[in-house]
Fold:
Amino acid sequence: MNHDYLERMNQVVQYIKDHSDRKLTLDELAEYANFSKYHFSRIFTSMVGKTPIAYVNEIRLLKAIQYLTSTTTSVTDIAQLCGFDSITTFNSAFKRYYNKTPSEIRADYKHRNFSQDSSNIPAEITAPLSYYRSNESSFLRRIWNMNISVKELPEYEVAYARHVGSYLDTHYAWAQIGSWASEHSLSPADQYFIGISLDDPGTVDEFACRYDACVTLPAHFKKQERVGISFKQLPGGLNALFQFYDTPDKLGITYQSIFAQWLPNSEYEPDERPCLEFCMNDPATDPEGKCKVDLYVPIKKRAD
Structure:
């Protein structure tokens, strides 16, 4: 693994540990790591094994356990010392993680019914996600041996329908843009159909995730306003291209593999442009229900 990526992630991990007693935002962590916010979360999650927010909360909970088991500080004060917004949030996080409230954990510790286990919170990042060390999955083995090419994409003018909500329901946006494209004689034979996931579901609530279903427009296309259809320019530039052909559920693993395995070992780092999913077939008509996607990840040469 490229030591630059490893060093930057370890620095962020240490920064979280040093500042977990106050509010930490994704923007702040991304800026500290010198990655764009759009890609930072994917890189962190792929390399550390959990989202930045989940990691922050686990560090806070570990500190809280230390307070609960070694001091008489009140639960309310501990919540504040560990960076939680309120006692309600504090109790909820404990209940979710330990299936106990802070008061119950303190009581259990007094009776030696609770043992502190911090093994799931790494001291530093030493390797990518554990599933990269497993050779049980033929799909993951194919991902390890990625055939990625570097390609320059031009700018594209597109019409798009936006879906806000679960990425499992993006078919609504595709139905909308597909109907509009058909009315304007824009077909897959002549134009590209491109999906853009604008949010990382690991850091954004599922109901708030944004997704654009796009179709490229021919030159001199006369744009007319219509409810549900918008227009924008997709910036061009250097991209890493991975040609994906498998069931849709494995596309997320492909993203993780690129950000945790290929990028850190390449001479590139992610650019701020969004990833583009060029849809090359209709999974509904594929004999095995697989989707064929040309996945473009925006990159730039890493600074020396």
The longest helix spans residues 52-70. DSSP finds ten helices and nine strands in the chain. Strands lie at 148-153, 156-164, 193-197, 210-216, 230-234, 237-246, 268-270, 276-279, 291-301. The first strand starts at residue 148 and ends at 153.
